[in-house]
Amino acid sequence: MAVAIGTLYLSMKSKTSGPGWVPTMAALLGFALTLSASYWQFGRAETKAQLLQEYLARQAMAPHNLNASIPGKEALVHRRVRVEGQYVLEKAILLDNRIRGGAAGYEVIVPLQISRTGQYLLINRGWIERGRDRTVVPAIDAPSGTVTVTGTTDLPGRGALELSDEVIEGRIWQNLNLARYRNKHQLNVLDFVVQEESDRDDGISRDWAAPGFGIETHRSYAVQWLLFAALIVFLYVYYGFVRNKTDQQK
Asked: What is the rounded CA–CA span in Å between residue 147 and residue 140?
């Protein structure tokens, strides 16, 4: 865009009369493109704002009882739920390189067998700090017997970046891929994960951040594109008419 504006500036600066058809077409094209980009960014911001309102509305609902019914995953995204069952600790995993407060650590993923239905659900029990020695894998713990878990559902793996084919090292995984987990542990887990809420003092941090919808980022980009559009108009009018008229009077 900077190159296009510079070209427009130079082409009009060299004119001795009004702007010709080349700078005029360049100005029209640049104005249309920047205005369209701004409109698109404002549209994205509006869509994200609607998603935020949906998220807040779902969070305000009473927790859904998964022991009574399990709706489709889309109906449960970002919904608070409650479920009773037993942890299957031997099939727990750790998600690596999770940063909290500038410290590296792991998120603890433990499957829960839902009471009465026998189905399996992955519970994200929270974050634990990684020690200085990466070769020392922290112990994974979970309450024994029947427990009741309350938390917010999420769909794992969206936008996950894997820099290597070596994504599993024992219990340590780079990202949570449900298909990969089902194949590895032979558990047909449900299509979502529950981020556990608890004030239990067990060394696990459960300070979950709200999803980042990026509304202000889109609005900022939209304003930047509007400024580019305004700059194109200014250059076209100033160098195509005002400056040329001044030069002709000299």
From this structure: 17
Please list, in sequence order, all residues whose beta carbon lies within 8 angstroms of the beta carbon of residue 215, skipping any fewer than 6 positions away.
Answer: 45, 48, 49, 52
Average pLDDT over residues 131-135: 75
Report the helix count and the strand count for the chain, using DSSP H and E: 6, 9
pLDDT on residue 158? 55
Residue 219 corresponds to which tokens in the numbers above?
A: 């609005």
- Residue 97 has a pLDDT of 86
Six token digits for residue 143: 């309450």
Rg (CA), the chain: 28
Element (H, E) at 94: strand 93-100
- E-strand stretches of 116-182: 120-129, 146-154, 168-169, 172-173
Residue 9: exposed, middle, or buried by beta-carbon count in 10 A (0-12, 13-18, 19+)? middle
Contact 167, 96 (CB under 8 A): no
pLDDT class for 170, splitting at 50, 70, 90? confident
